[in-house]
TrEMBL record:
It comes from Pan troglodytes (Chimpanzee). Residues 26-192 form the Cartilage intermediate layer protein 1/2 beta-sandwich domain. PANTHER family: CARTILAGE INTERMEDIATE LAYER PROTEIN 1 (PTHR15031:SF3), CARTILAGE INTERMEDIATE LAYER PROTEIN CLIP (PTHR15031). Pfam families: CILP_8th. InterPro entries: CILP-1/2_8th, CILP1/CILP2. This is Cartilage intermediate layer protein.
């Protein structure tokens, strides 16, 4: 078990296990970490722990057995990280998740969603970004920490061009996620101050 501080909320979760979860309900989230808000490919940071916490599905959708953990973490390499998460292709908002990033105990900041909502800064083009319902933890209360965001885990539709280039990848497209160039859609975190 692990405890996460998401905004001002404490969440205790078990690590995500790949048991008998159908592949159709598994996806990967592409995340990159940067030294600053300029989000330059040359300023990507390796060694950042990206964690995804899967939340209980919306009422009416299949819940995960209690034995399953609901979080997983991946460390960023030179091309960011692809973190496993549960998703749904029938209803975009059936599953949602919190995403966090930390480096040697320092929490990185997520890109804001309010009052400014800038798809170019977030790293995901419209209209897919609206479908993912991106909300930084301080979206409704500016006093909350800015170190995580919540998204709907909408599985990309295979015949949709705007959804085929990240930031969510179907389970069978892990390689495409791992090899995606910095120009492909991805979620972003950044350091409040640069590393010397």
């Amino acid at each position: 078990d692990r405890t996460f501080l998401v905004g001002n909320l404490e969440i205790r979760e078990r690590r995500l296990f790949n048991l008998d979860v159908p592949e159709s309900r598994r996806c990967f989230v592409k995340v990159r970490a940067y030294r600053s808000e300029r989000f330059l490919p040359s300023e990507q940071i390796q060694g950042v722990v990206i964690s995804v916490i899967n939340l209980e599905p919306r009422t009416g959708f299949l819940s995960n057995p209690r034995a399953w953990g609901r979080f997983d973490s991946v460390i960023t390499g030179p091309n960011g990280a692809c973190v496993p998460a549960f998703c749904d292709d029938q209803s975009p908002d059936a599953y949602s998740a919190y995403v966090l990033a930390s480096l040697a105990g320092e929490e990185l900041q997520a890109v804001e969603s309010s009052p400014k909502f800038n798809p170019n800064a977030i790293g995901v083009p419209q209209p897919y970004l609206n479908k993912l319902n991106y909300r930084r933890t301080d979206h409704e209360d500016p006093r909350v920490k800015k170190t995580a965001f919540q998204i709907s885990m909408a599985k990309p539709r295979p015949n949709s061009a705007e959804e085929s280039n990240g930031p969510i990848y179907a389970f069978e497209n892990l390689r495409a996620c791992e090899e995606a160039p910095p120009s492909a859609a991805h979620f972003r975190f950044y350091q409040m101050r640069g590393i010397d």
